[in-house]
Design brief:
Layout (H helix, E strand, L loop, with lengths): L2 H27 L25 H14 L1 H4 L2 H12 L1
Length: 88
């Protein structure tokens, strides 16, 4: 038998063995816990408290935007109007 034929047979046998082991061991490794959609969540999603941004922080953000972003991302007034619409 030529070396190429031996290598092909060996590779085929190894592949079949790996597949057999994978499918043979899968019932043992499978998780028995399933998802239950009727279950209550584990944590209490209470009200979210958002920190208020001071006027100083907003002014600094506007200055930073004008310095770094406004030349590419457009009008600051339009951006402010858009961000205010998100709050409501």
């Amino acid at each position: 038998m030529q070396i190429e034929t031996k290598a092909t047979v060996l590779a085929s046998v190894a592949s079949v063995c790996v597949l057999a082991m994978t499918f043979g061991l899968s019932p043992l490794l499978r998780s028995t816990e399933t998802a239950d959609s009727s279950r209550e969540p584990r944590t209490d999603p209470g009200p979210v408290v958002r920190a208020l941004i001071s006027d100083r922080g907003a002014a600094q953000g506007q200055k930073l935007f004008e310095r770094n972003c406004a030349h590419c991302h457009g009008d600051i007034e339009a951006l402010i109007a858009f961000l205010r619409s998100l709050k409501d």
